[in-house]
Design goal:
alpha/beta, eight-stranded antiparallel beta sheet, eight-stranded mixed beta sheet, 23% helix
């Protein structure tokens, strides 16, 4: 979920205070020497008492995340300033007056927007993807201030000056190697939609002796997921003996980076072994102005990424790398966001792929959009009764402890960007699933401040992207094309409650006629993102996607390949 690795009505980016207030303000200045101005974008100020890392790297939706405030700027010229004052919405504290007095490290960031003239005739300002997967902390060209320590007191009038004196540098392109090749493709459909050249990039893992076997043609495995800097989890040398250990907060392991290197090297040894089948694996960079990937389906706001990937990019990639080029020899897998994409692409393009292995997928039934039923609930953030309301959780651990609520995560996103421009999880769901608004931006599924759901937008989500609903509605024609292709895996203690939507989807699949002939499996007490591996913990299983589903895929090929299919050239 993609995860965490979404938005609707016009957002309120500032919260007016009742009565007088006395709080320090922040004056953020673009140097007169800055190039490429004037600037459009989002200016954020971040405060933290922790000086171990820069403040921008400490932002998160949890109760212990760094304090943030943000405003949108248009046409800010070099030498000019913008002010963030007491009326600006914040996170975790909603207003500056609620930030405790104290000593903090302060930093400002300008996340730059470009102007897009869309094919629908509308003009929008959005952050162009520039190589960092829509991570505004690292995105090349963004302006950043040098962190400084300040004494802050919201009751004391005054102004803190921060100068955007640094520019994030360009990110180097990955280089080809014996096993990992890189493929860049200009999409005609996406370029037309966005009114400028749009490229899709593939990081392709090729088999052993790929260049020595020009006669061989290969099955293609599409490993969907978040923005890939390069092909991950593959290493041709043993782990670095001098590696400095980095602990994993998620898995509570003291040297998880060594585990990652060990698994990557083990994958390489398996990849080049004599009896291992030869195939292609691709990770796709389809980062876009709204998120680090597109969810690989067509969208009114993001563009025809589904058609562009399936009919343009995949076809060109298979031609270049000698893929078999037929639906029976293409497979989809991934976890979280990648899990939704695997199932979503299989459902939207049922004959173009021969199986989807969807682990811990983002909500595939919007009656359980995590904990919200967008069709019957009136409010996304709260369970409401006549005299009280209870906040919905946004995350949990395996003991059901929750570090933030739905409202908190959505407010965090709103501080990072209005009009669905935060690059956050809820905003990308809104950008992908919602109709396009009159202003060119996605229509809100709910009011970002109050959580009140727009039922008309919810109906659009259901009819176009609720995968369980679409399958059940269209099963008479879809069912025969999807038999044997649907495989779902999720832990029953998924941190983002993604198991709930899988339960509802399984209930339909069990009664589907014709039978779906696939698999739904659950990990007992397993958290996000369990992928069907009962033998290993998540920390290991998540590093083995590219081989874990292979036995099932090979059986599927044997059972479904058409007469005369090439089953031998890729088994050298």
């Amino acid at each position: 979920m993609a995860i965490r690795k979404t938005w609707g009505f016009a957002a309120v980016a500032a919260l007016a205070l009742a009565g007088p207030s006395f709080a320090e303000t922040f004056k953020v200045t673009v140097p007169a020497t800055a190039k490429a101005g004037p600037f459009d974008g989002r200016v954020m100020v971040i405060l933290t008492p922790d000086g171990k890392t820069e403040p921008r790297f400490q932002t998160r939706p949890d109760y212990f995340g760094a304090q943030m405030f943000g405003v949108t700027i248009d046409g800010l010229k070099p030498g000019a300033s913008t002010t963030i004052g007491s009326d600006v919405l914040g996170f975790p504290a909603e207003t500056m007056s609620k930030v405790p007095a104290g000593r903090y490290y302060a930093q400002a960031v300008l996340h730059r927007y470009d102007t897009y003239h869309l094919a629908n005739g509308k003009t929008v300002k959005l952050p162009a993807p520039r190589g960092a997967g829509q991570n505004w902390r690292k995105e090349p060209g963004n302006l950043v201030s040098t962190p400084r320590m300040i004494d802050f007191d919201p009751a004391r009038p005054g102004e803190v000056e921060l100068t955007l004196d640094q520019v994030n540098p360009p990110i180097a392109e990955p280089k080809d190697s014996e096993f990992i090749r890189h493929f860049t493709f200009r999409s005609p459909q996406l370029s037309k939609f966005w009114g400028r050249d749009v490229f899709l990039r593939g990081h392709v893992l090729v088999p052993k002796d790929f260049d020595k076997h020009p006669e061989a043609h290969y099955p293609l495995m599409v490993f969907h997921g978040h923005f890939p800097e390069d092909f991950g989890g593959f290493r041709t040398t043993p782990p670095d003996p001098n590696l400095k250990c980095e602990p994993s907060e998620r898995f509570n392991l003291p040297c998880y980076n060594r585990t990652e290197q060990e698994e990557a090297y083990n994958f390489y040894r398996q990849w080049v072994s004599d009896k291992f089948p030869r195939y292609l694996v691709v990770e796709i960079d389809h980062s876009n102005p709204y998120y680090d990937d597109s969810y690989a389906v067509n969208s009114a706001n993001i563009g025809p990424y589904g058609d562009a990937i399936t009919y343009e990019f995949i076809a060109a990639l298979e031609k270049k790398f000698r893929g078999i080029g037929q639906g029976w020899a293409r497979f989809l897998y991934g976890g979280s966001t990648g899990g939704w994409e695997a199932l979503g692409v299989q459902v939207k393009y049922p004959t173009e792929y021969n199986g989807a292995f969807a682990a811990c997928p983002d909500p595939i039934d919007f009656r359980q959009m995590m904990l919200t039923n967008i069709y019957t609930d009136k409010n996304a953030y709260y369970l409401e009764g006549p005299f009280a309301r209870v906040a919905r959780a946004g995350k949990r651990d395996y003991l059901d402890n929750s570090p933030y609520t739905m409202e908190m995560e959505n407010r965090w996103e709103l501080v990072m960007g209005d009009k669905t421009r935060s690059g956050g999880q809820w905003d990308i769901w809104e950008a992908v699933f919602s109709p396009n608004g009159a202003d060119g931006y996605p229509q809100r599924i709910w009011d970002k401040r109050t959580g009140v759901i727009n039922s008309k937008v919810a109906e659009y989500w259901r009819d176009n992207y609720d995968l369980r609903y679409i399958m059940e509605r269209d099963w008479k024609t879809l069912g025969p094309k999807l038999q044997g292709k649907i495989h779902l895996y999720v832990g029953d203690m998924d941190n983002f409650y993604l198991n709930n939507a899988v339960y509802l989807t399984e209930a339909f699949l069990k009664k589907a006629d014709p039978t779906y002939q696939g698999e739904v499996d659950y990990g007992d007490r397993a958290e996000h993102c369990w992928n069907g591996d009962h033998a290993n913990p998540n920390a290991i299983a998540r590093l083995r996607y590219n081989t874990f589903y292979l036995p099932k895929i090979l059986k599927r090929i044997e059972a479904s390949a058409p007469a005369g299919a090439d089953l031998t050239s890729w088994r050298y």
